[in-house]
Design a protein that fits this description.
UDP N-Acetylglucosamine Acyltransferase, domain 1, 27 strands, alpha/beta, elongated, nine-stranded parallel β-sheet, ten-stranded mixed β-sheet, about 15% helix
Length: about 260
């Protein structure tokens, strides 16, 4: 390990495995059997605690806390759980990510995610790739986030829900049901529209977008039971099936729909 890349005020546990190219700022504490891969940068006043793995090229901002105990009154601190952070993630200042709540449980984020200042991921959250979470987004425990989502600043999300691929939430939204893939939501569980611009930017073809729009109108703007029966009568592309499967298999909280077409 090149000590020139670690500030002399940083405290590093002898259990930790730190790649030689990792930069660690002042007054940071790396506690326990953490693994930090090449080309990572850990800013000052950060706490990385316990069974935490941070993959290559990730950046952890000033004052962040990674691997702290879940905020669960029944949690046993002796539980063996942790956090896994994939490659090339950017976590800005004061991000907090708590470890899993059950033995062997992990809070996981994929690669190329951007978590802005003050984002909180509670225990057992699972996040995919290429997501952007604006300032002070709050994700409660056991939430599943897909890929290429944008969650607006100050939005809060209730435990156990699913957030589908290419979904967008307005800032300060309060969401306690699943967000369907490709959807835009706002306020208190309000479905706004299909994320048409996001689909174009993501490279979906005109035919794919037309089919997704057809599935969206069928499944989310009327009776779900009747819609699923109708959807089962025809063949759909993989892109549209992503939406159909989300409606067929919602979390325990149910999925956001709109019963009238605006």
């Amino acid at each position: 390990m090149s000590h020139s890349l670690i500030h002399p005020t940083a405290l590093i546990s002898p259990e930790a495995r730190i790649a030689e190219s990792v930069r660690i700022g002042p007054f940071t504490v790396i506690e326990g059997p953490c693994i930090i891969a090449d080309d990572c940068e850990i800013a000052g006043h950060v706490l990385v605690k316990g069974r935490v793995t941070i993959a290559r090229g990730s950046r952890i901002g000033w004052g962040s806390v990674i691997g702290a105990d879940p905020q669960d009154l029944h949690f046993d601190p002796r539980t063996d759980s942790g956090v896994e952070i994939g490659e090339n993630n950017t976590l800005r200042e004061y991000v907090t990510i708590h470890r899993g709540s059950q033995a062997g449980g992990m809070t996981r984020i994929g690669k190329n995610n951007f978590l802005m200042t003050g984002v909180h991921l509670a225990h057992d959250v699972e996040m995919g790739d290429d997501n952007v979470l604006a300032n002070n987004v709050l994700l409660a425990g056991h939430i599943r986030v897909g890929n290429q989502c944008f969650l607006g600043g100050g939005a809060a999300f209730h435990q156990f829900i699913h957030i589908g691929d290419y979904a967008i939430s307005q800032g300060n939204a309060a969401i306690s049901q699943d967000i369907p893939p490709y959807s835009m939501v706002y306020g208190n569980n309000q479905l706004a529209a299909l994320n048409v611009i996001g689909l174009k930017r993501a490279g979906f073809s005109p035919d794919q977008r037309a089919e997704i729009k057809k599935a969206f109108r069928l499944l989310l703007l009327g009776s779900r039971t009747i819609a699923l029966q109708e959807a089962a009568k025809k063949q759909w592309s993989d892109a549209a099936m992503r939406l159909i499967k989300a409606v067929e298999n919602p979390s325990r909280k149910g999925i956001i729909t709109r019963t009238t077409i605006l």
